[in-house]
Amino acid sequence: MILSMTGYGKASADFRGKKITAEIKSVNSKALDLQTRIAPIYREKEMELRSMIAQSLERGKVDFSLYIERDDAGVAVPINRTILGSYVEQIRSIIDDFDLEDPEEHWLPTLLRLPDVLSRTEVVELSDDEWAVARSVAEQAISALMDFRRQEGAALERKFTEKVDNIEALLAQIEPFEQARVEKIRSRIIDGLNSIPEVQVDRNRLEQEMIYYIEKLDINEEKQRLSNHLRYFRETMASGHGQGKKLGFIAQEMGREINTTGSKSNIAEMQNIVVRMKDELEQIKEQVLNVM
After folding, report:
1. Could you report the per-residue pLDDT of 147-163, keeping only the tens digit for each?
2. Strands of the sheet with 60-70, listed across from one edge
3. Phi first, then psi: what are they for 27, rounded to 5°?
4. How many domains is the chain partitioned into structurally?
5. 20 and 136 inside one domain
6. pLDDT digit string (tens) for 194-249?
7. Residues 18, 69 contacting (CB under 8 angstroms)
8. How many CB atoms lie within 10 A of CB 87?
9. Residues 178 and 269 in one domain
10. Global pTM value
11. Residue 243 class from Cβ within 10 Å (0-12 exposed, 13-18 middle, 19+ buried)?
12. How far apart are alpha carbons 98 and 113 in whole angstroms?
């Protein structure tokens, strides 16, 4: 089963009056491109978190967040009196130095908005108990993202199977037109020569040239190779995840055979079928970029 590189996961847990939340999302990328936003208290564990994510996700552009929300109901934020006093002294000094009017009655709202006046004492030490909870939350978020990737991968696999089946069916539709076009080409050449009575034709040489020309337009090898690529694409999908790049290479080879078939198709019916095959293949190419 294949996996998609697109996914999202989120998990939370409560720990001593605060809510620890991990959130992770990913989209397609050629390699692992990991961006993290981690609460300061967990920064010392960043390399451990990165290693955990890399082992699970392998590829993709990944955004990971680990943050804290506190239950602040009924808890007053302390005022830093030292900093507040320092601001007051500076303001009084400026008023005296520049002979400004003293708007004391309007000070308080302004003072409370100044940097660091309202402060909260942060816990700077990360306990083993808290880290165990935070790590578990991160693991749950990653697991949820992997579930998402599996679901998206299953949807992609169904889509690819449908498109490969369509290409195979279109390939079979070419055969009747391919057989008829050889006779059309032969008849057209002979009729053209017969319309020029003064031209003497070496029939043996004519047959040789016609055989050579018709062989150049033969698409049996292209059909066989395309059939092999379609079968290999199915086998690769069934072989497990981590096959995105390989599926992309197979799709490229399928495109080469379809393009060659189109260049050798000199009747409108075959060319129309080739166009439809290209359309089905293009949809595969667009989606294969999302495969792990």
Report:
1. 999 999 999 999 999 99
2. 7-15, 18-27, 60-70, 32-38
3. -135, 180
4. 3
5. yes
6. 677 666 666 676 666 666 666 677 888 999 999 999 999 999 999 877 789 999 99
7. yes
8. 17
9. yes
10. 0.72
11. buried
12. 23
If asked whether residues 43 and 90 sit together in one domain, one would say no
Q: Classify strands 18-27 and 7-15 as parallel, antiparallel or unpaired.
A: antiparallel
Which letter does DSSP use for residue 28 in this model? Answer: -
Range of the domain at 88: 81-112
Report if residue 249 sits inside a domain: yes
258-267: long-range pairs with CB below 8 Å, 24+ = 258/167, 258/226, 260/219, 260/222, 261/174, 261/219, 261/222, 261/223, 261/226, 264/216, 264/217, 264/218, 264/219, 264/222, 265/174, 265/219, 266/181, 266/185, 266/217, 267/177, 267/181, 267/184
Structural domain includes residue 1: no
For the chain, helix (H) and strand (E) counts, in that order, are: 8, 4
Distance CA 2, CA 239 (A): 8
